[in-house]
């Protein structure tokens, strides 16, 4: 059994880790820390876990995380970089669900997140945890930078096109929509039910933190300079993410060839479902599951390709992807504990 | 492996059976019938099942259900009574999720459902599939009448009080609220998103089919004549049911004694969670799971007891309960395939 | 033109007052106070008011409310009682949307709201602002205690039955459901979209502040001692309230007589719509309007009468009712500025 | 008083016309036709209109629409073209909310809508009813082709940029999102609450009927060949539309100049609100009102301009726009009956 610690278990990615790990056959939940909720049984905060998770939150200083085999950080940015060095030094693997190790270029990180990086020496060793594009490195990793939710959809959607060199990398437009849980479990007016329900809006249109992360990763797949416009929107639903990816074709490829690029790229992937050409994937077909679905379109037969990508932002977009990484890091079957079928309707 | 057939797999209880059974370790999905969708791969209708359920719907006359060990009827009322006799005669067990065998009194059934009963000889042998109140009979059953969703909550909530003889059985008021999936997957104006969203209403207040079913079952637990007012309402959410049960206390019992009645009644039940006295169970703590949660209240310390009961209407209220019955009928562990934790948030 | 001031204009009842008063033909919005938002244009906080409300919030100490003809308090409990004495002394009428003057019995108030009453001398003079049950007094009033949202539905629904003496006043059960806006515009976890959406729950079941207010008002209509069980629930919708009111009939009345009690009681009321016997009023038929709709039922023809009452909790349940009072206090037509038709769908 | 007839009053644009026209000071509702609901009082179908609209639906052959001054067609495509010639011949003005007269090029219309045009002689005379871009012609019109909901947002958003010649008209990308009411009041599985709620999806990505309409209109503003990619999506909310419009800048313009283009274009418009540069308009700020709001962005200061446009799809996107046209056609004040403030929250 793998002894697992979770730092910051009170947020949505934290409780989602608990939901997944509580039924994972090779995991023993060992410690869940929360500064504010020290001593509170986890199931008192999340009654859905009553009878299933029987430990309590403990204050960070009371929990001996070095007893764990792996520690997940489901924390705001800045926490993992402070604690990871000691854990790694003691042989504990670390999976950070925040952004601390996602951007290799320290200057870009610090400009983007407006904090100093306190463990820059780990940036090189950190492995970006997008399994489908990085599997072999993840197997060897001790420190995982779990991808952002939006970046996961953009990379899975654009990678086959960039690798094949059939699109203009200098003019990518990603129009993305997320359920409200993506904003986290914070007491803020803007995400109250009476504010976010029955409403739709964009946010961060002039510039968003996920753009540099995504651009840097996409750049790996092409020699052309990547230029990405990324526009996030808030959808009145709890879970789910839908990315509508636009690119201009620079080569004369048929619809069949486009479709084949994707089918070939993901033919061995159990968590990427390439739907028939021209399909319209719905976010609800991934709700609660680690599945990402996509479909390719070519509006009016023109020179623009559109890729529609859906996932559950809390699973494949966050905690499920982290567990997928953990499975690989410990030599387990990749889908262990991740086989739940989406809740539909 | 148990060979399972599903008649009427296109509705919400049907797809919910598929979701549960596709990952059930002892089940082999053998046939799913649909008159209208003959030949259509199940996953084409429900993309959430892509890669997980690989069979197609078949027309009723093409499917040899007698090859199955058990057949679930996820159909409108009237279908199971037509087909059950032949299946039972050939040794196939039958679990009906509709009402055909729920009411023992043929006259009451026919008056309530306004159809003739074509298999009245089976009414006696049919076992009412509410496991927590009927476990031993279910283990021996060949024909299960799976309870209605509302009746499940009312029976679990009132039974301990009636058995203990502490309430006035002649004046029970059950104010119940259901998510919209309870209305089924039918093309009807009233359950369109633009009609049912951002709205709340009662329906069937003057009389509802679940009243006679519930009254007859509750009568088993008391000598006093049961009189039940049952008021269903429609909540703008997909899944979830919340019953607020009122009863007048006829004996001088303390809050602790009330609480103990429930804790004792369900102390060995893994799918009934008696929360601390005065709790407010939320429907979302059961979403996608087979768990039913309840809590006992006594407003302003008076002589009225209020029991709050929540469940997922499609799981414990329908398909999960049916699988729970199946497990017992085949001598399996009761919770096999039913251990999913609720999806929260 | 009536010069209107609003104290506490940033909450939901505040912005609803603004929406209604901005198009009221006899009103001039003169001052809107907010301690936190001093100087902020109202339309910056509520862009729906851009181009329609052109004043800014001002700090309480900067606004000279004594210039107003009437001041609305859309504040938490305790604010109006502090400021009303001075305003009234200077001839300014006061309408309090909070609870400060709703309960005549000071001891009950202080026990219920757990604060000292600092203006007990005004309790006698305050008029309870439920127009349909109190019109003549309201016309003469200088200080209005605007009713709570739940109490409005319970009084309108029970009053005709109590006045006619046909029900048992000692065993009233009111099962009520409210949209989330009723919880106010507060940064609290429990009313986040991701917590309150796709969910249903009861709250305050063991005792709620609206019970004493309602019981005291209902007592006016009967000599029998009123005993009320009131259970509030939270519905995943922004606006709307549905009360399901139960009472036991003590006299042999026909359905027609029951219906006539209500039709007679409200035949001259333009904001109370008595629907045909056995109807199921929907909250959405009142969304954004000052209309309250009700319908009478008698389940299975028994001795229990059920009254279904719906309203928009922010309009007839709060700000619309307050404007209705204002119209009467200033001798205007009762429906001035309140004629908007509900937004459906 | 203007005598108004409505053909097809049972759909969502029909009931929205009723909501607006019932309180319009210069309108007398004279006839509302419905083939299926002949004789049914309008308020029985839409209880929100109880006490406000007192006429009944009448079968088309029973209603003498020639008595009307103007007839609105809130019907499926194909109905207005059949009845408009006779009405126009008798001096009745016609406003068609469907597509029959939106596309001047008959061949394009017939290819797009897959029906023959039976009144091609009227195509020339029909005036496209987008007031802000076509006001003078509308004032003189007898036959109005009311714009589609999506096309309204795209035209208002792109027109100033195209007129100024600062963008590449050959590569416009419009990523648009609509509330579910846009799909109409039809008994279809796909728009059931349990299917469309808690979900997000694109539809018609490979080609949608609003593309030719919009392209043709946009072409009026530029000599460059317009090429438009239009992607509609379905948002789980009843009302509201959000269009995210992308264009590549071809000239070196500052943010201030971009903003000024829009402010100048719409400075006299009471139903177009140009928000400050970089704002994020929310659909709810237009709910129930005829207002359209927009804001201009320039992500990361690059060469892509993004225009965010919101409106209520049933008001400015349909029925409100139609009433705005009617006001102009009859020489009334443009905003008569259209001054309602959006319902927020």
From TrEMBL, chains A, B, C, D:
<keyword id="KW-0560">Oxidoreductase</keyword>
<keyword id="KW-0963">Cytoplasm</keyword>
<dbReference type="GO" id="GO:0003942">
    <property type="term" value="F:N-acetyl-gamma-glutamyl-phosphate reductase activity"/>
</dbReference>
<comment type="function">
    <text>Catalyzes the NADPH-dependent reduction of N-acetyl-5-glutamyl phosphate to yield N-acetyl-L-glutamate 5-semialdehyde.</text>
</comment>
<dbReference type="InterPro" id="IPR058924">
    <property type="entry name" value="AGPR_dimerisation_dom"/>
</dbReference>
<keyword id="KW-0055">Arginine biosynthesis</keyword>
<keyword id="KW-0028">Amino-acid biosynthesis</keyword>
<dbReference type="InterPro" id="IPR000534">
    <property type="entry name" value="Semialdehyde_DH_NAD-bd"/>
</dbReference>
<dbReference type="InterPro" id="IPR000706">
    <property type="entry name" value="AGPR_type-1"/>
</dbReference>
<comment type="similarity">
    <text>Belongs to the NAGSA dehydrogenase family. Type 1 subfamily.</text>
</comment>
<dbReference type="InterPro" id="IPR036291">
    <property type="entry name" value="NAD(P)-bd_dom_sf"/>
</dbReference>
<feature type="active site">
    <location>
        <position position="149"/>
    </location>
</feature>
<dbReference type="Pfam" id="PF01118">
    <property type="entry name" value="Semialdhyde_dh"/>
</dbReference>
<dbReference type="InterPro" id="IPR050085">
    <property type="entry name" value="AGPR"/>
</dbReference>
<feature type="domain" description="Semialdehyde dehydrogenase NAD-binding">
    <location>
        <begin position="3"/>
        <end position="141"/>
    </location>
</feature>
<keyword id="KW-0521">NADP</keyword>
<comment type="pathway">
    <text>Amino-acid biosynthesis; L-arginine biosynthesis; N(2)-acetyl-L-ornithine from L-glutamate: step 3/4.</text>
</comment>
<protein>
    <recommendedName>
        <fullName>N-acetyl-gamma-glutamyl-phosphate reductase</fullName>
        <ecNumber>1.2.1.38</ecNumber>
    </recommendedName>
</protein>
<dbReference type="Pfam" id="PF22698">
    <property type="entry name" value="Semialdhyde_dhC_1"/>
</dbReference>
């Amino acid at each position: 059994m793998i002894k697992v610690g979770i730092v910051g278990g009170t947020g949505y990615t934290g409780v989602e880790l608990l939901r997944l790990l509580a039924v994972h056959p090779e995991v023993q939940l060992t410690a869940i820390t929360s500064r504010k909720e020290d001593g509170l049984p986890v199931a008192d905060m999340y009654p859905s876990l009553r009878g299933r998770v029987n430990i309590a939150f403990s204050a960070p200083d009371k929990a001996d995380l070095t007893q764990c085999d792996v520690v997940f950080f489901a924390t705001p940015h800045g926490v993992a970089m402070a604690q990871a060095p000691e854990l790694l030094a003691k042989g504990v693997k670390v999976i950070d669900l925040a952004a601390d190790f996602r951007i290799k270029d320290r200057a870009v990180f610090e400009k983007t997140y407006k904090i100093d990086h306190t463990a820059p020496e780990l940036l090189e060793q950190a492995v970006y945890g997008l399994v489908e594009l990085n599997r072999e490195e993840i197997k060897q990793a001790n420190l995982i930078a779990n991808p952002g939710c939006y970046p996961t959809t953009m990379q899975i959607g654009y990678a086959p096109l960039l690798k094949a060199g059939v699109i203009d990398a200098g003019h990518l437009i990603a129009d993305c929509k997320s359920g409200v849980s993506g904003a986290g479990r914070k007491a803020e007016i803007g995400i109250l039910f009476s504010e976010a329900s029955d409403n739709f809006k964009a946010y961060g249109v002039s510039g968003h933190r996920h753009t540099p992360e995504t651009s840097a990763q996409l750049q790996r797949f092409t020699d052309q300079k990547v230029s990405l416009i990324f526009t996030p929107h808030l959808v009145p639903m709890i879970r789910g993410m839908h990315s509508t990816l636009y690119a201009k074709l620079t080569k004369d490829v048929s619809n069949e060839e486009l479709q084949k690029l994707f089918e070939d790229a993901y033919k061995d992937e159990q968590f990427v479902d390439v739907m028939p050409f021209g399909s319209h994937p719905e976010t609800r077909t991934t709700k609660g599951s680690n599945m990402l679905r996509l479909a390719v379109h070519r509006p009016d037969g023109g020179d623009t390709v559109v890729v529609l990508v859906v996932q559950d932002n809390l699973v494949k977009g966050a905690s499920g992807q982290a567990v997928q990484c953990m499975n690989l890091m410990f030599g387990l079957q990749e889908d262990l504990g991740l086989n739940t079928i989406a809740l539909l309707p």
